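Appendix C reproduces, verbatim, an entry submitted by the partner laboratory led by Prof. M.T., so that reviewers can inspect both the input and the predicted structure.
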Amino acid sequence: MNARKIAYETLMLCEKEHQFSNLAVNNGIKRYALTGHDRVFYTRLVYGVIEKKLTLDYLIGQYTEKSINRLDQAVLLILRLSFYQLYFCDKIPESAVVSESMKLAGQYASRAKGFINAILRHVCWEKMPLPQGRLSDIESLSVAYSINLDICQLLTEQYPDKVKAILDGYQTNPAVSVNVNVLKNSRADFLTRFPKALPCRYSPTGARVPASASAESLSFLKDGLAFVQDEASQLAVM
């Protein structure tokens, strides 16, 4: 099945049934036996749309006179998927985004197919720049970084000199933190066996695996040599 279609269905489950995104994604991968490029693309679409939701809704709102809240849920999800690809997936041709989005619209929002097509072609013809976060405007920061308004307000009040750096940090893909099972091997032995891993900064038993690696496919998890756990959680347990 098409990765975009699976991503749409997964996002709809998260919206309507309030499923946890990680569980919904794992279920999608297993149900459709996704591997290779399809798996990577599907995962990126789902998490990307969720992470950039505030920014995407702002951008969509610039191309329609209708309020975002008044759009049919299927229409809004198709537009979010489309805008995410147009703005955040540089290697995908615009023509392919429009074509595949029309297929989704034909299946899930046939009455709004012309409406969706008109918006996407307008974006391709005249693409407005991504919003820029201004420190003097909390709402601007929220939209630009796709971070909840209350969180932006709190960060600005508590870290006025660091808020930009903190928000920039949210945009990076963190490494996967694992806690080494010292009953089976020491951290030094673990790092020798898996040279791509690096020691955590604070946890004496923690290691960081590159974000590009698939945690589920790494052999040390199956062998019980380490388990996925955020470094902050490791320190809390200690």
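The mean pLDDT is 91. Additional entries are available on request from the coordinating office.
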